[in-house]
Amino acid sequence: MIKPKVTNCFIEQAQKFIVIVPAAGVGKRMRANCPKQYLLINNETVLNHTVKRLLSHPLITQVILALGEHDQYFSESNLAHHKDIIRVKGGAERVDSVLSGLQAVNTQEYPWVLVHDAARPCVTHQDIDKLISQCQQNDCGGILATPVRDTMKRGIAKQGERNTIKNTVDREQLWHALTPQLYKTQELTSAIEVALKQGLPITDEASAMEHANHNSLLVSASSENIKITHPNDLALAEFYLNKQRNS
Predict the structure, then answer these.
(1) Euclidean distance between CA atoms 42 and 121, whole angstroms
(2) Please, what are the domains in the chain?
(3) Which residues of the chain have pLDDT under 70?
(4) pTM for this one?
């Protein structure tokens, strides 16, 4: 992949970044015989595509992979002995894996940390640049996101009945949360630790920061940054990866 020319004055400071990739999940919705991060696209695993995309960015120097304790696939991958990859033990939930990764970060060397889904191999360098630039300009963490375009419906279902529409939800100011998400390392670690202690639901890093009353920027990103969740997503990810490689 050709690295983009970095011109933004804030990025020119050449601060280096580390990325935590929680990869301990099993991806049950994929109905596959292995975790979705080890499914193949163009003869490479999804995880391999994702990590290569991250490490090829000029400001990213290391990736921390939070893997399942009984992961039997990683040791056979070509990532297993990569010098810029740190492996840590993942947890039962995504947030547990992220916290495990955070505990391995040298906060003096990396005062900011990115967190990225293992199953998002199509993120672009341009979007990572935008996220880093806008967060540093505003001295505030943030996430990549896309605005909701479709009409949104809230459903309701009684036991034994079909789903029906309860009401239409105003889509103004509604966004799809993507990754990477970028925050100050110490602030994110503290926010997650407190939220877990209080038993609060943490679905992504931004939700932990919300509970801690920290602001988060919404940085508009490409809709190509899909998360592979269902079987049909593999073909779409392959299409986007081929398109990006040929552009």
Answers:
(1) 12
(2) 11-139+179-216+224-246 (3.90.550.10)
(3) 1-14, 27-32, 159
(4) 0.91
